[in-house]
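User: Show me an example of a complex going from sequences to C-alpha cells.

Assistant: Sure. Here are the input components:
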Amino acid sequence: MGDIAILYLTSLITSLIVALILKLPLIPKEKPVRFSFQTSIIFPTPILALGIEAIFRNLFGNYIVLAVFAGLFGALLSKYSDKLFGEP
Amino acid sequence: MEIVEIIKVVVAGIICWLNFVLIDTYFGLPEKPGVLGAKTIGEKIRDIGGNIHGGYFMGNIVCSPDASAGTLLASIMSYLMGVEGGLIAALLVWIGNRLCADPGYAGTIGALTITAIIYLLSPIIEAKYFIAGMVLAIFTIQGFEHKYASILLGKIAKKMNRGE
Amino acid sequence: MDIVEIIIGVIALLMAIRIFLTRSRARKLLYLCCLSFCISALIALYVDSPMGGIVAITYFVCSTLSSNAIAYTIEQAKDIE
C-alpha cells in the first residue's frame, strides 16, 4: 500500500514541477474561473497525471520510471490541450 | 435481504443526486447553455411550463459529460477497480469534456468527489449500489417529470446564485 | 439477476417506452440521455472487468458526443426555418 502511494505522489509532484517549467499559471487568468478553458497548475494537471499513472500501474506494474512519465504526460496534456482538442 | 439492498440503493441515490446537482450548479450549468444544443432543450422545457435555468441545466447534461456523467462513470470504475478506477474515470471524463467543447470542471470534480465518498462509505454501502443509485438519480431529473425537475433545479440555482 | 440490475433494467425499459411515445424531439433527447446512463451501467455490471468499464465509458462519451451533434443540428435547423 505504501509503495503505491509513493508512486502516485511521484507522478503528482513530477506533474506539478513540469507544469511550473512549462509556465502554466497557478489559477486560470480568465474570470469567472468556472467557464474558463485555460488550464492551470491546480486544475487538470494533477488529475490527469494521477489518471495516467493509474492506467500505467494497471497495465505495466509498479515502476517508478513510469510514474515520472505519467507526471510528464499529465503536464504536457494539460498544456497542449487546446492544440489537441481544438479551440473551443 | 432485498429490502436492505433497496434502502442502500435509495440512500446511495440521494448521495449521488446531491453530488451531481450541487457540483453542476456550482460550475454554472444552469446559467447559460454551454453549447447551442442545450439552448434548444432549455427553450422547449420553458415552453412546457418549466424554468429556463433548470432547462439549461438539463440541456447541458445531454450535450456534454457533466458531474452526472462523472458520478456514474466514477462509480462504475470504483466498483470495478477501486479508487484507481475513480482516477481513471476522472481522466477519461475530462477528455470527453474537451471533445464536447466544455472546460471540464464539473465532470472531473464530480467524479473525484464521488470516488472519495464511495471509498469512505464502502464498509456500509458497496460501490455497486452507487451505480444503481446514480441511475435512479438521473432518472428523477431526465426521465420522470421534466417540468417539475426544471423548476426544482431552477430554485436550487437561484439559491446558489447561478441563475437569475 | 441482482436487485441493482433489475432497477437499472426497469428504468431502461421505461425510458425506451417514453422515447417511443413522446412527440417532441427535444424531450426524446432527454429520455435518450437517461437510457444511455442505464446501458452504460449495464455494460459495466455484466462485463464485470476493468475493460468492461473502459467500454462503458467509451460508449457513454460517444453517445454524449452524438447527442451534442443532434441537439446542435436541431437548433441550426430551427434557425434556418
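The lines above are the inputs; the final block is the predicted structure for all three components together. Chain B is about 80% helix and 0% strand.
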